[in-house]
Specification:
7-stranded mixed sheet; single chain; 17 helices; 6-stranded mixed sheet; Dipeptide-binding Protein, domain 1; 21 strands; globular; Dipeptide-binding Protein, domain 3; alpha+beta; D-Maltodextrin-Binding Protein, domain 2; 20% strand
Amino acid sequence: MKKSVKILALLLALCMLASMAACGSKQETPAAPANNGSSTETKTETKTETKPEAKPAADLHCAVDAETVVVCTADETPSVTCRDHNAVAGGYVNHLTYETLLALDRALAPQPCLAESYTYEEQADGSVLWTFNLRHGVKYHNGAEMKAEDVVASLEEAKVMPKVATYAQSFNNVTAKDDYTVTMTTDGPSASLLYDLCSNGNSICPADLIKSGHDFNVEPIGTGPYKMTEWKISESLTFVAHEDYLRGAPQIKTVIWKIIPEGSARTIALQAHEVDYVIELDSNDMKLVEDDPNLTLMNIDGLSHNWLTINNEVKPFDNKLVRKAMNAAINKEDVVTVALNGAGIVAPGQTPYGQLGFDGTGYDHYDVELAKKYAAESGVDMSTISFDIICSDDTKRRAAQVVQDNLTSLFGMNITLSSMDLATYLSETAAGNFEGFIGGYTSSDMMSFLKGVYHSSNINASNKTRTNDPQLDAMIEKALATVDNAAREEVLKECSRYLNELCCQIPLYQKATLSAHNANLQGCFTGASGRFWVEEWYWE
C-alpha cells in the first residue's frame, strides 16, 4: 500500500537541514537548479552569459592565467577513484570528476543531481520502492551518454568495495527499468538513503568500463565538470574542463592541484601568487591572510570531529577506565590553542556538537582528579603504558604534542610521535596497525557519523577504534530506520549518551574550515563540510 503524504514528508525532514519538498507516492520532486544539484541558488547572468575576456596574469595577480586556477592542498588523495578510499582529500578530487544521483546543497540537504526527480511508495511486504528518473543527455568524459545500466553497475560495485560499502547498505535490488529509469528498494522506511546516495562512493561511472576492469585510478571517467589529464605522484594533479558538461563548461578551463604538506609553505605560495587557492590554511597563518589586501580568508564553523583514536582491541586500551582516565587527563583547551590557534572549539562529547542528536550528558571533561580516580579504578599502572601516536599533518602533530605532554606529566606514560603520509596513514589505521593516532571524521549528519565511526560493519574501514558493541549497533540501526524527526533525535541522543560512557576514543576538537584564496578569484563558496564548487569559480 502507498504511504500517506504525511509519513513521506517526515522521511524528508532530516537532521535539521534545509527542508525539501515532500514527494508523495507518485508525486515527483522538482528538478534541481542548473548548478550540479549542489545549491539552491542559480548562477548570475554575469557568470553564464559570456566568459570574461582573458587578462594577463600580471593584471589578475593569478598564478598562471585567467583560465587557470592553481589549488594547493596539504594531503595528496590516496586514490582518484571514487570507491577505493574514504579520505576527505579524495572527496575534494572526486567532486571535480564524478557526480552522484543526488548531491548535498549548500545547506547540506540532498537534492537531485544526475537524477532529475524521484518517487517512492511502500510495498505490501513493508519494503519501500524508490524510482529515480535520470537526466537525459549527460555525457561522460569519454563522450558516452550516461544510462540506467551505469547506475546499476556503479551502485552494485559500491556494495562490494570495503572503503565505501557503508554508504551502499541502505538500498537493495537496483534495477534498470529503462534507459533513464532506475528502481531500488529499502527494507522499510530509510532516513539515510538520500544522504547515502550523495556519497562519492556511489558516484556513477560507465558500466562497460567497470565490467572491463578499467583502471579508474589511472584514468577516472565520470560526468563531473573536470577530467583529470595528469597525476604526478606527491607533486600535482591536472584537470581540464569537461566541455560537454551538462550544466555548461566551467569558466576555469584548467585546475592544477598542487601538494604542499607544510602549512607555512602553502601560505607563502599563496602570498607570492604561486598558487591561487589554499584548501587547508594553517590556522597559525590566519592573521597573515587577513592583513593581506590581495587575499581573502574563509573561516567557517566546521563539522569535522577530531580525536585521539586508540585501538580498543589492544591492551590496555581495551579497558574502558584506562580510556576514561586518559580522556580526563588531557587539557582540550590547550589543544585548541596550540593545534588550531583558537580556530575551533573543544569537542564536548563523543559525537559532533551542533548536529541533530548531540548530547553531552555523561561526558568527562578535563579534570585531573577525575583522571587519577579512573586510573586507580582501572587496576592498571598508567606509568607502564607506552604507545606511539601517528600524525599525518602539522595540525595533528601539534595536537599530539599537547596530548603527549599531559599524559606524560600526569601519569608518566611513555609516548612517542611519528609522522606518516596520508595514504599510508589511512591504510594502516583502517587495518588496525596502530596503538594511537590523531584522526577525525566529517559528516553531513549524525546518522552518517555514527554509522561510519562506530558501527561494527565498518571495522577495517572507517571504524578506526574497532568498536564492536551489539547494543550500540542496534541503536544506530534503529536511528537509520526512524523517519520521524523528533523520534530519531531521541534515538541519536541515546547513542550520544551511551558513547560518552563507553569512551571509545578521546575527543579533542571540532576545527573551523579554513581556506584562503586570491581576492580576484570569485564564486568561492565553502560549506561547513569543506565542500567547494570549482565549476562556479571565475576570475574578476
